[in-house]
Amino acid sequence: MVKHRVLVSDPISEQGLAALLEAPEVEVDIRTDLTPEGLLEVIGGYDALLVRSQTQVTAEVLQAGVNLRAIGRAGVGVDNIDVAAATRQGVIVINAPDGNTISTCEHTFAMLLAMARKIPQAHGKLKGGAWDRKSFVGVELSGKTLGILGFGRIGTEVAKRALAFNMRVLAFDPFLTRERAEKVGVVMASVDEVVAAADFITVHTPLIKETKHLLSRDQFARMKPGVRILNCARGGIIDEAALIEALQRGKVAGAALDVFETEPATLENPLLSFENVVVAPHLGASTEEAQINVAIDVGRELLQLLRDRPFKNAVNLPSLSDEAMRTISPYLELAEKAGRLAAALAEGPVQKIEMTYAGKLADKQTDPLTRSILKGLLGYHHGEEVNYVNAPYLAEQHRIRLTETKTTRHDLYADLLQVTVQTDQGDVTIAGTLIADLGPRIVQINDFKVDLAPEGTLLMTEHLDQPGMIGKVGTLLGRADINIAAMQVARRSQGGMALMILAVDKMLDAETFEAIQYVNGIRRVREVTV
Fold first, then answer.
1. Residue 444: count of CB within 10 angstroms of its CB
2. Which of 69, 153, 234, 398 is catalytic?
3. Burial classification of residue 519, based on how many CB atoms lie within 10 Å of its CB (0-12 exposed, 13-18 middle, 19 or more buried)
4. Is the pTM here over 0.85, yes or no?
5. Mean pLDDT of 143-163
6. What distance in Å separates the CA atoms of residue 513 and residue 477, rounded to the nearest whole number?
7. Which one from 282, 399, 491, 492 is the annotated catalytic residue?
């Protein structure tokens, strides 16, 4: 029997490794004392590598791992793994996104209750020798409204527990449908509706460009007096400066924070000085069960891969034959960026995604392209939770209908990839192709014809086709010291609606973005990083 050799280079419990240790065809070496140089020396003899966050899996390590088929990360984040290099080497990267769901959910609810009943403060005072009942009058959860921003696995579990406490739950998620909301027993709402109505607000989104400072000064201004805020997801989703101001003014009655914009948090962070703020050092996944579960999940996934059986949690593209990879790889970046751009422009919950492959693409293996489109589209809002393997499954869970069409001819291009996203507020269409010496190009946005390199930060405006529009926007960017690297302008007809796309060297600040929104004649502004 051919043995598959697996190297475990970070501390992982044997209970978590049970599936690998008990498999007769697998040889597991646990070597948690390897230096970076030592890892380079031995990695060439292994078929798989299992890590947590300590081991740095660099491009150099991957190059030395000539026999590597897979890297397993016992956890969600893969910041310590060069995923792009792994993909180039044909190495599958697997993570464990489900193992800490219950742990994080329960921690959120523990923080919610601790904040509502002022338990840490009362505990500290009694430990100091003072029997003080008057200073720690709390609030009940029953009858209150909980707003949940981000309704994935963790947000859904939090909602179930809140409903058991007789709370009313408002939920926002870009892919939440009314049907699913009703099934769970929550009310689907927009961010603004959640912010305005909730007595408690908890965030459960990934930290991506679109969710950074999701709760900022504007949102705090719309909240009820006496609102309470929780963040057990990622530091940076809440603007800490804005939260501090709201606490100082008394607008926010309390906060419970497990994560911070800068970690580890120190006493220099003013949030640690407020008596009505409950804090913890990023303990969301810190339970015995969660640590074991993520190891069990990734161990089982690795074993499935080594046995050439189906697996679900690959962060990068599943293995393809060398020939298939050569023919399809030039289009993968185009597909993912087309999906991401479509997600950025779509408004409302996605109901249907139509994918069309025209020309030479119709003869190719398009399943990887479809997965890339879905990863870009769903990942725009859900970050690292979405990968090439689970993207179709997540689309199904969100009850998104998928259609795929192939046609061997196109009037303008030798090959064309097109994505149409249908929502209850209208359709968005993105089309792209590859152009010799230029690479991926977006050639259509809705019914506007463009020629756009999908890279960097793009500022997109829909406006009336009238003189001076380009100059007005350019002036505002210039005042903010934002350079324009490239520009595209398209229109349907003279004097009608026009589309302007500006590639800019850095993201806009909130003041500049708002100023552009108020330029006379502009109907819509979007800033997208692709």
1. 20
2. 234
3. middle
4. no
5. 96
6. 9
7. 282
